[in-house]
Amino acid sequence: MPVSVRIPTPLRTLTKGADEVKVNGNNIKDIIENLEANYKGIKERICDEKGQIRRFINFYLNDEDIRFMDNLNTPVKDGDNISIVPAIAGGH
Question: What is the pLDDT of residue 51?
């Protein structure tokens, strides 16, 4: 079941410039594994050594933050939209 994944600018070198890709999976963890299978190196940029999403990377499923859902186990279905959003910090 394909879902659309929006790729942030810093990761587009791994997706050959694509700002959105289609990936299959039953949950967020599957989506990340399939992203890695199709775009080598992307997982290490979004996940830590334990396989958890890095603190400064946010995942949104249909505009809902997965941290307030089931995190990596959040189920996805055909036609869902996932956004990968790097956190932005700065200022005083």
Answer: 95
